Amino acid sequence: MNGANAVIQDPYENTLVVLHNYGSRLWGLPGGGIEAEEEPVDAVIRETREETDLELDKNQLTLIAICTRRNKESVNLYKTFNFKGNLAINLPGEISDARFMSFEEIFCLHKKDKFGTGYLRMIIMHMMCLQGLDTPVVERYLYEPIVFDAGALGVLTI
In the CATH scheme, what is the homologous superfamily, with its name and number, of domain 3-157? Predict the structure, then answer.
């Protein structure tokens, strides 16, 4: 199933992440599958609301990447700094935690095999766009490593 995810950042540039209760039970980005007849942007708005109770404005979402998984399904990646509401877990069977984390916190979770590699690559794509190292809308394979200079963390190959 094709999907849509969002890099949602607070005023301190922390990224919203959710802890999944299924599959590998890893942290990742809010989002999910695109339903029949649904546009990807509408799917990310719906999934974010279902998972976190936060409301996203369609006009404040920017498509930054179209990613291809190994199974050839695609994931549309959006970014926004604008959201409304209070963070809450709406789907306890699907999501057990949601919070804003710094890149350093996310990277530490990844090193402990607790953060999904594809999601981390999506966050890095967003960071590269912000730094002018990549231009939206980039097309990438989620299974190909990304090399990124993460400042104090050094040059990362994820």
Answer: Nucleoside Triphosphate Pyrophosphohydrolase (3.90.79.10)
